[in-house]
Amino acid sequence: MTADTLLERITDYASRPDPWPLYAELREAGPVVPQADGSHLVGTYHEIVALLHNPRISADPRSSSRTTTESAEALTPPFLRQDDPEHHRLRTLAMRPFGPPHTPGRIDAMRGEISRITEDLISSLRDRDQIDIVDDVAYPLPVTVICRLLGVPREDEPMFREWTDVLVASADIGPGQDTAQRDEAMGQARQEMGQYLVNLAEQRRGRPTDDLLSAFVNEPDPALRLGDALAETAILLLIAGHETTVNLITNGVLTLLRQPDQLDHLRRDPDLMPRAVEELLRYEPPVHMRERIPLADVNFAGTILPQGSSVILALASGSRDPKRFHEPDRFDPARPDNEHLGFGSGVHLCYGAPLARIEAQTALGALLPHLATATLTQDPPPYRTNAMLRGPRHLTLRLRT
Amino acid sequence: MPGDLKEGRIVVVGASLTGLRAAEKLREEGFTGSLTIVGDEPHPPYDRPPLSKQVLFGEVPANATALPMRRDPEAEWRLGVRATGLDTVGKRVLLADGEPVPYDRVLIATGTRARPWPNAQEAALDGVLTLRTCDDAALLAERLAAGPRRVLVIGGGFTGSEIASACRERGLDVTVAERGPAPLVGALGGTLAKLAAAMHRNHGVDLRCEVTVTALRGHGHFTGAELSDGSRVDADVCVVAMGAVRNVEWLAESGLAAGPRGIACDAGCRAFNMYGIVTDDVFVAGDVSRFPHPLFDYQLLSLEHWHNAVEQAEVAAHNMIHPEPLRRPHLAVPAFWSSQFGLNIKSVGVPTFSDHVVIAQGSLEARRLAVVYGYRGRVTAAVTVDMAKSLEYYQDLIETAAQFPPVAGASDRPPAAEVPIPSDVPDPSVLYHGPTVALTGHLPDRRLAMMRPAV
Fold first, then answer.
1. Is the pLDDT of residue A243 over 90?
2. For B192, how many CA atoms within 13 A lie in the half-sphere containing its CB?
3. Do B409 and A85 touch (CB under 8 A)?
4. The whole model's pTM is what?
5. How confident is the model over B339-394, as pLDDT tens digits?
6. How far apart are CA B302 and CA A150, in angstroms?
7. B9 φ/ψ angles, rounded to the nearest 5 degrees
């Protein structure tokens, strides 16, 4: 097989459990590997980082020369998929109540609550012989956390989870499946959720509670308000922070169960957990690929990346590049110099990274005592179809007591 | 022979960032011999960047910036002891206090000190300060906390500007006197200096450019200063921020190529002697060194940068314990940062090695931009203001000697991105603030590296 079918082979559902040999092939064929459909695939660390920092490479789907028919996509994408200066403006506004420099303590202050939510979830599983890490822990935890952070009242959390289910499921229809159906379901859920969030934010206007929506609508300086971008931004925070964290926690459990010596190591030395989570972000990251679009013909590493074409950056491959990481296919929670691409790099570096870290550290830390006697019922587990945001659909464990 | 290099006696003169990182690296790479670290300050190694920022805001005490140790360097620490000479024939470091310390290899990392006010009597007035050490910072922070009527800062370089910024942060009136046309012009050139001047003024700094301070006044206590334009500034505190002086005097009799711009060394951190012959057992790193850099025509650079201190220390340490074929060059692209008036300023390359600049991204109006510097049609530096994540791209352009002006296409490119304007870097001798990056020519001979004092 030739390298120009690599993207097709990677996205093929059969590759989901083990895309790593394909990534190795990609790096070998690289650094820039043209695909039969006119796109380019990049899987080497330094080249990915260079493209993520290149101001002539766009994250905005509207830069594409292909006409998109994604009706579910709002006219103005969320800041994740916009370029500077508008991306910077919106991201900075969204950051004001979330992190430094204006609110440096917010996420750290949530540690206690995140621990409590986790403990509640885990203690409800006490009498079960078999649990599904995805449905029972990894999925509900981040939704609950983001609801609290945004300021969604607890009685509305179930409704929120329904919308999220639809959005996550509809984003997970594989190639060749009916996209019209996906678009419709997603569009409706998005619209309802957006409307709900806007209404909720309205209720907070003048009556702020300590949450992001309140902060967004009660900003005294009109220039610092999100305005029309409020709904889109709130949905972004919910979806982007949620799908990925589910996979991070689930991949973490899977990895530790596959490597009992490392599980044991962590149980003996729980202080290693923050570094173990960094290693997970490198070794089994939730985000495998991101798409970028050149704003001009960009001459890069000896290849012209045409304006408006699709450039797929295989972040997960970059994090296993032997030219950057020593023994990249080894899971080593004590790995030094671990500047992985799990959160991307450049201006779009993951906004929610501090929250994701705490969630994963907390969830895995709380699960550790239970994992010693747990076994996987199925390995590899069934995966979601999505190749870009890769993770198990279920991860069923048998718990022995 | 290679085995021998991992043993023996190494002395590191200088116990700040460079000395510490070198010592750690020596042990990390397997040096098992004896290691002595000599430092003239009584404190264990500490970090200096916070001294002009968090310490002056009152957020962090001056004695709380100790550098974390990556590992125990297992060294004999001789702190509070000044080195007074280097006997390169007898291979001994002479100390002000105690027996000479013999060495097989020595690393010189004595850094710089604050340039003092040239009139010793005026400099001795209570309230006339400089800022370099943590003791300096403690004293200045204490004086700022006492609520002086006004602070006079002499020199609008990075340190002077950060001090002025801290004063405004604390609500104190502050005057900055700069001999050149604008703050930071020596390091960043004309375009960003205009922004710097606007930031000073927008934040309420009384900025006086193209003036010199002719006299400091007071009886025992500093009360004000006379300026060359005939005006007078009444103030309770005066901070002399006129750049740094290399700590090389102790090497006057050593025979090394040590001069006001530092000690010349090769790209592998080996010191040159005064005849331009490279030594094999005397190494130099950090602010006190001058080293050739291929990206800048092999001119000897002298840098006062945190990042350079770390990188060069590691190269020096590696080379001290490896034979010639395994030695590494110090090729790191110079980089530094500053935070002042709410802005984050970061630089890569050598902005003073330029003839033209373009604003490649963002705008001066938005206070958020990337300025790219070029020399004879290639990219040699870039400075970002509140746009640090863009810097890495420009570092690639510098490392690959990419064409200047850089190709267009950024989404946040201003309309005039292709129109180079003169970089407008003045002769350092007309400034109060020395550039923190200095190109010092090609020759190691100290007589040719002489710099006239600014005042």
1. no
2. 33
3. no
4. 0.89
5. 999 999 999 999 999 999 999 999 999 999 999 999 999 999 999 999 999 999 99
6. 51
7. -115, 125
Residue B333, both tokens: 């692209």
Is there a contact between B409 and A347 if contact means CB atoms under 8 Å apart? Answer: no
A40 and A310 Cβ atoms separated by less than 8 Å: yes
Tokens of A164: 């999220």
* Max mean pLDDT range (A70-74, A191-195, A210-214, B238-242): B238-242
Name all contacts of A203-209 with Cβ < 8 Å and 24+ positions apart: A204/A151, A209/A151
Are B361 and A55 an interchain contact pair (Cβ–Cβ within 8 Å)? yes
Residue A179 has pLDDT above 70, yes or no: no
Interface test with B, best of A53, A58, A293, A347 (most B CBs within 10 A): A53
Q: How far apart are CA B11 and CA A323, in angstroms?
A: 35
Residue boundaries of the structural domains of chain A: 3-399
pLDDT at B255 over 70: yes
CA distance to partner chain A, nearest, from residue B362 (Å): 8
What is residue A178's predicted lDDT score, i.e. its pLDDT? 61
Asked if the C-beta of A36 comes within 8 angstroms of chain B's C-beta atoms, the answer is: no
- Are B31 and B321 within 8 A, CB to CB? yes
In this prediction, residues B174-201 reach a mean pLDDT of: 95
Half-sphere exposure of B207 (CA within 13 A, CB side): 27
Classify domain A3-399 at the CATH topology level: Cytochrome p450 (1.10.630)
Nearest CA in chain A to B369: A85
A343–chain B nearest CA distance, Å: 14
Region of poorest pLDDT, from A230-239, B354-363, B434-443 = B434-443
- From A299, which residue of chain B is nearest by alpha-carbon distance? B407
Interface test with B, best of A45, A48, A54, A82 (most B CBs within 10 A): A54
**Is A274 a residue whose pLDDT tops 80?**
yes
pLDDT of residue A240: 80
* Residue B118 pLDDT class (50, 70, 90 cuts): very high
Residues 69-98 of A with CB under 8 A from B: 83-85, 88
The size of the A-B interface in CB pairs under 8 A is: 52
- Put simply, the chain A residues between 333 and 362 with a CB less than 8 A from any chain B CB are 346-347, 349
Q: Is A302 left (phi over 0), alpha (psi -120 to 50) or beta?
A: left
Q: Which domains does chain B have, with CATH numbers?
A: 2-113+245-326 (3.50.50.60), 115-243 (3.50.50.60), 353-424 (no CATH)
How would residue A72 be classed by pLDDT, with cut points 50, 70 and 90? very low
Instruction: Tell me how close the Cα of A345 comes to any Cα of chain B, in angstroms.
Output: 9
**B412–A50: do the CB atoms touch at under 8 Å?**
no
